[in-house]
Amino acid sequence: MSTQTPILEMSLTELVDGIHQGNLQADVVSQTYIDQALAAKENNSFLCYSDTADLAKASLEHKEKPLAGLPIAHKDLFCTQALPTTCGSKMLAGFMSPFDADIVESTADAGAVLLGKTNMDEFAMGSASENPHFGPVLNPWNHGYVAGGSSGGSAAAVAARMTPLATASDTGGSIRQPAAFCGVTGFKPTYGSISRWGMVAYASSFDQAGPIAKTALDCSYYFDIVNRPDEKDTTCYSAARKATYPALQAISENADNALKFDQLTIGYLPTWLAHEGLDAGVRESFEKTKAEFEAKGAKFVALELPSLHYALAAYYILAPAEASSNLSRFDGVRFGHQCENPQSLEDLYKRSRQEGFGFEVKRRILTGTFVLSEGFFDAYYKQAQKIRRLIKNDFDKAFKQVDLILTPTTPTTAFPLGSAQRDPVEIYLQDVFTIPANLAGLPAISFPSAPAKGMPVGMQFMGQCFDDEKVLAATHLYQTITDWHKASPLAQTSEA
Ligand code: GLN
């Protein structure tokens, strides 16, 4: 009996190694994922596919490059010349970008082939990926549940084994929350690492691109490829990057200089664990993860970060404020949707925006415009900026004491479809554990832990700015002693 892992269950790094060593054929690997991407189509994680007829053949041409011709999907907020970019909005229907996003370019240069663009919450605003224009992404573990958002399509595509890796973006949790809901690993790097060039802006001082894949090792490998300075993005830091992958490889090889469990001091937040919205199953999963680290010698320290109490409120002021400004460019003149027979310029603006934007986007634009308006700016926007500073200070203090902070990624597991009928604040509360990392610019990851009631659960590590390597390495350490990240919805279907 063969014990070989099926191609669809192999991690990106295993696939790359297999192709580079000649044990796997790039075109066979590619075709296997393409077939699955088409077979699992009903989960609606893709908004469009590349022409798949020649894709496997194209893979062969790139088999010696770092991404070995693998078919990779991009979230539909990254501009691609080859496929339309809608950002999940009717406003950008049919928009063809004249250039590629920096991350799209570096991914292609490294030898990946573009499989397609993934579904998302409109303009990356939301936590469910129940897109008002293109329909909901279905959670591969149970099609009655959401995949999370806003990068729900990317997370579902990786979980359903339609691609070995998909790009995503994280403004308040949009890489980590869907990764948690779908049982995959999602990494949000330090703010300012991967370039934002060609990424449709939501809230520019928060937006960060990153990967969703099966493992932390895959995220690290890919991160090193796409993480580079870029003059076209002034917030992309200019210093040379240090590769993260060697530190994770050292762990895999059990090298003397590798990070060990007993070198880790991990903070945790008892007040968050007492959070009224925290599911019992998620809490149990947290306790189990903590115990797994402790059993191997990691030290845990209880932390109190008082300002985090205000994080959610500050985010839902600042992010809409930036969004209202960023989205003013969609005026019906320059991009995408334009209303029919405009009677005047004002009518053109009004109706194009009314027809092109969905409900949640309009709510954010209104909120943002309100908090920036005269008379309310000091009361809301300025106060929220002060809170942002306090949060950064609290984290700086905490990271003098601990290497990383461990929390659940989300208070609950995936919720049933139909979130639009729910109170928006209830949905915003989903982001309570992920938002602080965006306010402070920290690197953070979500990785699968023990499931609850048959649905995946994610744990989150946050690290100090530029300590991406430690965030990834500690997660990789955990994934060398546990198998939660190997659980696959495909195994569930075939057993059923
Ligand atoms: N759920 C959050 C929001 O709706 C985060 C979105 C994101 O990270 N893009 O704003």
Notable characteristics:
single chain, alpha+beta, Amidase signature (AS) enzymes, eight-stranded mixed β-sheet, three-stranded mixed β-sheet, 39% helix, globular, binds glutamine
The CATH architecture classification of one domain is Alpha-Beta Complex
Global outline: globular
Query: What is the CATH topology classification name of one domain?
Result: Amidase signature (AS) enzymes
* Class per helix and strand makeup: alpha+beta
Q: In angstroms, what separates the terminal alpha carbons?
A: 22 Å
Please state the CA-atom Rg, rounded to the nearest Å.
21 Å
Describe this structure in words.
The protein is built from 18 helices and 15 strands. By secondary structure, it is α+β, with helices and mostly antiparallel strands. The chain has a domain of 303 residues: Amidase signature (AS) domain (Amidase signature (AS) enzymes, Alpha-Beta Complex), CATH 3.90.1300.10. Strands 8-10-9-14-15-13-11-12 form an 8-stranded mixed β-sheet. Strand 6 and strand 7 form a beta hairpin. The longest helix has 25 residues. The protein is globular, with a radius of gyration of 21 Å. The model has no long low-confidence stretch (mean pLDDT 96). The site of glutamine has 14 residues, from strand 8.
Write a brief structural summary.
The chain is of the alpha+beta class and 496 residues long. The protein is 39% helix and 15% strand. The site of glutamine has 14 residues, from strand 8.
